[in-house]
Design goal:
With 97 residues, this protein is an alpha+beta fold. Helix content is 69%, strand content 14%. A two-stranded antiparallel sheet has the order 1-2. A hairpin with a 2-residue loop joins β1 and β2 (14-20). α1 (25-46) crosses α2 (51-95).
Length: 97
Amino acid sequence: MSEMLKIKLSIANRVYPLTIAPEQEEGLRKAAKEIEAMIKQFEQSYSVRDKQDVLAMCALQFASQVEQKQIDKESVSEHVEEKLVALNRLLHEQLNS
């Protein structure tokens, strides 16, 4: 078992101390950086100054991206399944003729 790592991440002018597995560090730091960039974008684009509102907008943005990816993945899976069923039907027809 690997040793845990203590890091500090700054998000919306607050520091969050975390104890994590070393393999999580890169992902967490990238996520914090992306959140900070999104905060700046929302503050500039919508003149929002309340950090709670900005963070809520960030959370909604990230959650909607996750949900959309899941919807897209399910759609692709259905399409692939339909193609496989059609291919299987063709194979059976060829084998039985």
